[in-house]
Design goal:
By secondary structure, this protein is α+β, with helices and mostly antiparallel strands. Strands 1-2-3-4 form a four-stranded antiparallel sheet. A hairpin with a 4-residue loop joins strand 2 and strand 3.
Length: 149
């Protein structure tokens, strides 16, 4: 039995000489794009449009079961990618997951915008290099959108 090449849907590439490893979910990202029929969509540069601030639905609004199911399916797929190998979408996915119970059509479109971003950047991966005794990680996952900090 050789080195691990896939684990829980994550693709693993090892470089023993450099003592490094690359983790990615490229096949899963392609599967998500295909599932939501977004293989050939226009590319976007950020997980959410600049300055977008989602708002809750009006009090008298109730999402249709179709929108709610589709929205939850999109967010579920994005959460798996985010938790696995894509911290760059963390802020956007967590922000949009706040509307799981009663999403509007606008919320659904913005969640699909995150999927478009994945389609624009399907080959991004985590590069882990050996030699260090700890893991240091930095991410500006809200794309400098927090005006307070």
């Amino acid at each position: 039995m050789g080195p691990v090449k896939e684990y829980l849907g994550f693709q693993v590439t090892r470089n023993c000489v450099k003592r490094s490893m690359v983790l990615h979910q490229h096949p899963y990202v392609l599967k998500v794009l295909k599932h939501f029929q977004m293989e050939n969509v226009k590319h976007v540069r950020t997980p959410l449009p600049a300055g977008y601030q989602p708002s809750t639905a009006p009090k008298d609004y109730n999402a249709s079961p179709t929108i709610r199911q589709r929205y939850q399916s999109v967010i579920r797929s994005l959460l798996f990618v985010m938790l696995g190998t894509r911290p760059d979408i963390a802020f956007a996915v967590i922000k949009m997951s706040q509307f799981m119970a009663n999403p509007t059509e606008e919320h659904l479109q913005k969640a699909l915008h995150i999927v478009k971003y994945l389609g624009s950047t399907p080959n991004l991966a985590l590069h882990l290099s050996g030699g260090a005794s700890s893991l240091d990680c930095y991410s500006d996952s809200d794309w400098a959108g927090d005006s307070e900090t």
